[in-house]
Amino acid sequence: MRRALVAVICAALLVAVVAANRLIPEYDRKMRPIGTTGAIGETVRTSAFDIKVDRVTVGRSLAEKDGLGDERERTPGLFVLVWADLTGVDQPVTLDTAYLRTADGHRYDTTDAMGFGSLDETGSDPGLTRYGAIGFELPPYRLAGARLVVAPQAGENRLGPQAEVDLGLSADGARRLVAQAPAVVRYDQAVYR
Amino acid sequence: MSRPAGEHPYEPYRQRPTYLPPEYPPPPPPAPPRPPRRSRRRLWYAVALVALLPAWLGFLVWRAADQSYGKDIYAVGPVAEHDRPIDVAGTRWRLTSIAEAPRPTGSLTDPPPRGGTLVRAYLEVTPATTAAAKKIAGCTFAARDARGRVWDTADSSYVEDEDDVPDTCTPPGYSSDHIPAGRTQRVGVTFLVPADAARSLRPMVRPSSGTPYVLFG
Fold first, then answer.
1. What pTM did the predictor assign?
2. Of chain A residues 50-79, which have a CB less than 8 A from chain B?
3. Does A153 touch chain B (CB under 8 A)?
4. Mean pLDDT of chain A
5. Residue whose C-alpha is closest to residue B190's, from B80, B94, B74, B103
6. What is the set of domains in chain B, with CATH numbers?
7. Is B129 in contact with B162 (CB distance < 8 Å)?
């Protein structure tokens, strides 16, 4: 009787071990960045940087404010500029990872149309705040519900800091923004405040 | 000659009349050693488990931390006392001065942003050999304050280059050459930092990629 009980317990433990092993998360999930979420107008604080998005501008083409001539970058979709304050915490920081995550789960990385001077590339330093735009291109119908995701390290940002900011673009708000979009949206180089 | 039982002086006392009271019986023979009880063995297993579990969890945390973001790319190695030279990577380094820089007045330079201060440091760099001079040709400078915050050198737009002192470990000008062995070169680097960091700022240099920074006091 006692031996049978021990055998049953051992079998149950074996099953539990197998089940527990299946519960171990995959490497990418286990080591994914430690995200901090917030909304437009709020300062989102991470261990490496603070970011505060204050506005979103859109346009059918893109130009640098003080650029020479009338050079414009064009897109079949929409240029979306996310304007933000960025401050490093204890080291210089650049946002090597920056993308928009749409409501339906698509990811749009930063546009190549923006020259040097975008906030993600310029970055910032501890105690000094830089203000500038991060640019994206995406189809207008994917604007509603988009969230900005930024992190200081590209590729494998294992257990690193990451900020996710809800841009506050409701369906109506996004529609209005697109409808009122100017032909050209202009950006400045990121500058210290 | 034999004596009757009980009268022999070495006869066990209990076999003959004794004056000892009955409450002091003779000690029992020593018991044979018993095998450790099962419950005691289980206790040791439990103790081992309790000790190993935190050790295993610690290992997992250490491994995760080792693989994670935040490995300090500004890690500090050797520390030099203020004004004292230090020999690292076959080169002698010496901090000669560090002070707040005057506000740039030139039309080609930007003023520091509100709340920011420019700090300029001068160092002397003397490679002992040609190999050392080549090794340090790609040196990089940074600065650290008392709170452990780190800044790279300021953008060139903030630097008023009046004294023509190079800001690299290569000879002045646009030469890609190295400093001649044994020659001391002066290097000047500027940092843009918040005003509250200026007073405790300490420059540091990474002689070559992959090495820790040398921190100057």
1. 0.78
2. none
3. yes
4. 91
5. B103
6. 78-103+114-210 (2.60.40.1240)
7. no
